[in-house]
Design brief:
globular; 11 helices; single chain; mainly alpha; 324 residues; 67% helix
């Protein structure tokens, strides 16, 4: 089974089982992210600065990578430290940082529902850069599978979950007092296209970088997250007055930071040993997990759009990874 077929070449059954378990764990963490954030709400609002959560997540990933190298889980390369190979990861950190900030600015020029639906175009941009930069050709069947992923994401974002209307005051759902009218400005559309292009480029560029360098994954992550910490530290410091770094954090917030840090490391392994396309399927499959957690924890109702999206995702997985 090849990387493009969803597996890892040359792996025996035990290691293939661990690879599958890693993908399932990443899918679960992606799906739990939004419900966990909702559980952090106090009086309908997130009590901490988003930049604090991003900075602490990057710092946690950096510390975990450094720890794995120090205890010998991954061997340090022989010879002089390859510091020169760290420089290309600055671009990866910059692209990821730009994308994270674009998400915030996009909300000024369109409503959240429009953003959720149209942001699925990043699946197409990732596939485009995957073919251009890594010189992989997708078959018509694989292209159709990715198209179904985009449609599934749009269906889920357009109405996969519904508030039954009996939300108690002060709960995370109480902020949705009424539907926001759909709108998008011309500048918002341009920024959205830029967001999708940067999202695809950052994913494929990082994959290309990690596969070309003959360095242990932990060391590559150390380079990447060092730049990530420096970048996000600057963004946090320049963000103006607001809550302190740890102000407003609760046990749920700490769980959000830890889970996102672990997931970042899992996605690095996918980039190193799998592909950006595998990451797309993990993110899309996480919609099902997100819906289940939202229904169980936040008392949201599943709609017909959710079941349609689930069907389309299953069909896409079958088309892309099934026997040809």
């Amino acid at each position: 089974m090849s990387v493009e077929d969803g597996g890892m070449p040359g792996l025996g059954r035990p290691r293939q089982a661990r690879w599958t378990l890693m993908l399932l764990l990443s899918t679960a963490i992606y799906g739990a992210h939004a419900p966990l954030l909702a559980l952090c709400h106090v009086n309908g609002k997130v009590p901490f600065r988003p930049s604090s959560a991003v900075l602490l997540t990057e710092l946690t990933k950096l510390l975990l990578c450094a720890f794995s190298l120090l205890v010998g889980w991954q061997a340090w390369p022989q010879g002089a430290p390859p510091w020169r190979q760290a420089a290309p990861f600055a671009l990866s950190a910059l692209l990821y940082g730009a994308n994270n900030n674009l998400v915030i600015y996009l909300q000024r020029y369109m409503d959240p529902s429009t953003y959720q639906v149209l942001s699925n175009l990043k699946i197409g941009s990732t596939a485009l850069f995957y073919c251009l930069c890594l010189r992989h050709r997708l078959s018509a069947r694989q292209g159709l599978a990715l198209l179904l992923l985009m449609v599934a994401g749009a269906c889920y974002a357009a109405g996969g979950l519904q508030d039954p209307g009996n939300t108690l005051p002060g709960s995370p759902l109480a902020v949705a007092a009424g539907p926001m009218p759909l709108h998008i400005t011309p500048l918002g559309l341009l920024l959205l296209i830029l967001y999708c292009l940067i999202s695809g480029l950052s994913s494929v560029y990082t994959e290309l970088l990690m596969k070309r360098q003959r360095l242990p994954l932990a060391l590559q992550n150390l380079f990447l997250y060092t730049f990530g910490v420096l970048l996000n530290l600057g963004l946090h410091a320049g963000g103006g007055p607001g809550p302190g770094l740890l102000e407003g954090f609760s046990g749920w917030a700490a769980l959000v930071v830890l889970s996102q840090a672990v997931n970042g490391l899992l996605m690095s392994a996918v980039m190193k040993h799998g592909s950006s396309i595998t990451r797309l399927f993990v993110v899309s499959c996480s919609l099902v997990v997100n819906a289940v957690f939202s229904a169980a924890l936040l008392r949201l109702q599943l709609t017909a759009a959710f079941f349609l999206a689930t069907l389309l995702i299953g069909l896409a997985v079958r088309l892309y990874y099934g026997s040809r």
